[in-house]
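Example record

The entry below shows one chain as it appears in the dataset: sequence first, then structure tokens.
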Amino acid sequence: MGKIGSVAAAGIFQKVSYMDAKITLREDARARRAELARALPKFADRIAAFAGDLDLAPGAIVSGYWPMRDEPDPRALMTALGGKSHSLALPRIAARGAPLQFHRWKMGDAMVVASFGMSEPLPGAEQLTPSVLLVPLLAFDAHGHRLGYGGGYYDRTLQVLRANGKIIAVGIAYGGLEVAELPHLEHDQKMDLVVTEKGVRRFTS
């Protein structure tokens, strides 16, 4: 095979092993998250109390997400941040495989159900560039690595946003979703903070 072929094969094996590990982890994390969602019905109100602990710059534009099924609910936190004069936005999937787009939003605005069952702002809503991104996840580790859903939307989006300016990535998670370490590759984007019902976790780069 030769040295170059051996290196290439090792790289392919590493990627396959990484993908297989993530598939198993996602299955376990989804079951665990469903249990935690039932055990923590007041989660949304509890994390809203930590809005001031995020220490966001005045006027920062915050993009959240509209939760589906047992995703941790960030809406009360978003309402609290909106009350601190932060502009709010929600993401839209512009195209499969493309970074997310963000549009101005406030509670009560009309929405549409789009790809993957996501509730999104109307396409005509003003497009914004957030400086803070609230991110759903299935698990996180002690270094800020995130286990996502496998579509890569948030990794692609954070890569673009970080290449063009400062962005704070804030994972929203039940505290019981923390694990010691997650498999990751170089392109996987870390969280700067994670907010759980226990408080705000900060991670160093």
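Notes for this example: The CA atoms of residues 39 and 187 lie 34 Å apart. The chain has one domain: 2-202.
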